Amino acid sequence: MDKINKNSFTPPFYQLAAIIEKKIMEGEFKPGEPLPSENDLGREYELSRTTVRKCLSLLAERGMISAQQGRGTFVSRPSLDRAVFVMEDFKTQMKRQEKEVGYKLINVRFRKQLPEFALRLGMTPDEGILYYCRLLTANAEPVGIEHKYMCYKKGRPTLENEFQYKAFSEIIAIHTNFLPVRSQAVLTAESASEYDANFLHISTGDPVLRLQQVLYTRDEKPVGIGVFYYRSDRYSLISDIHPLKGER
Amino acid sequence: MDKINKNSFTPPFYQLAAIIEKKIMEGEFKPGEPLPSENDLGREYELSRTTVRKCLSLLAERGMISAQQGRGTFVSRPSLDRAVFVMEDFKTQMKRQEKEVGYKLINVRFRKQLPEFALRLGMTPDEGILYYCRLLTANAEPVGIEHKYMCYKKGRPTLENEFQYKAFSEIIAIHTNFLPVRSQAVLTAESASEYDANFLHISTGDPVLRLQQVLYTRDEKPVGIGVFYYRSDRYSLISDIHPLKGER
DNA sequence: CAGTGGTCTAGACCACCGA
DNA sequence: CGGTGGTCTAGACCACTGC
Questions:
Q1: Pfam families, from UniProt (chains A, B) (predicted)?
Q2: Chain D positions under 7 Å from a protein CB?
Q3: How many helices (H) and strands (E) does chain A have?
Q4: Minimal Cα–Cα distance from B39 to chain A, Å?
Q5: Which of A137, A150, A195, B53 has its CA 20 to 30 Å from the CA of residue B184?
Q6: What is the pTM of this model?
């Protein structure tokens, strides 16, 4: 039997998680079957129930097990057919890949009207709309283009600099009286418009990833819409589902 | 000051999380600034440190705060510019939308060779490759098409039925000696090939979402590759980032 | 009813950080 | 050095499941 080394640098709850995971992967604990109870695990590995629970919650987070009050904790059916894609803001992503990020402000305009798709989303022009558009580059090559529409209201004078570097939700928070607290994003594939294709150095009609982001206030009023188009050859989303490693 | 109601059905750690979140959203705790220490919070709300920690870990999971050992717990910069897309298997997703799922097996073949992109991913034909292809429908309308390639090894007789209904990783586990434990997925936009477009009832060249999934064994050997193409008008990924609600 | 997971407490020791 | 978060313990009460 594997034992817990209390002098290791990796804490017991983590060691236990690795042990249980190993037993699941080796078939000692099978999908659909219950794990030993928390108390039993505590006795077996000489750990307090609290520690056992912390370990189990770690495994549950990763979707390997799931607990049912009053019944037990069960090994989940393996579901490698899941994928989790995390999109952070462009700068963070590119830095992780050690690429040089660049933004180029293409257009800033005050508008009276919203494009049709924005109206369908329930956004209203109120006192007007501020539109801007940026080109996103990595190592000086165009990767994506974004179009943003935000409610305009009692705006302080806007500085071009801000559009270059600040996050959308921040800009809205600063320049309007609205505070976005919820964000919904939809990811699809589309054909590039002539306008976008030009800036992205691709052909009109080429496939692009389209990310549409809508920011809502606390009372569910949409106050900002951003639409991103990414070159599919230079930008993709990656999901990695893998087991715990032995050490941290 | 908000108080913790210990007789409520929503547990204290959750109530506290909602209180702290509210204070963050109302600006009482500002981004970049530290929260009161865990001990202070415990004193203020008459909760044990353990409970306070459970609450903080909840907020940390949601990216609202982050702890730094020896320094404190800090309010994160708001990052609504993040998106998290979770893709489950097709059946689960469609059921959630209350759509009638259908699979149609289009092709099953034994192959000696792998397509070029699979070789680039480090997969080797070994004793041969089993290829199959399914059409995914929702309410009888074509939504996606998937192509799967798996290592073939000492296979038991394969049943067409299985290809219809079982998850890819399960099929591999059953029909080979390989057990997939890691999955990597890449999401991009592409133009539909003539073959795929035909089945999807779209035009060749139309944009589609392309999901490529590679399954690896414990020793990092790729043993299965699945490529999905989804009609972009009938399939999209959605991410929702929103604050805690008052009640559970 | 006995056994399970869900929550909470009070207290302890540690590693880390900054003055 | 004192204060912070990170971890662990031993014990408690609860709500839920199944017999």
A1: GntR (PF00392), UTRA (PF07702)
A2: 2-12, 15-18
A3: 8, 10
A4: 19
A5: A137
A6: 0.82
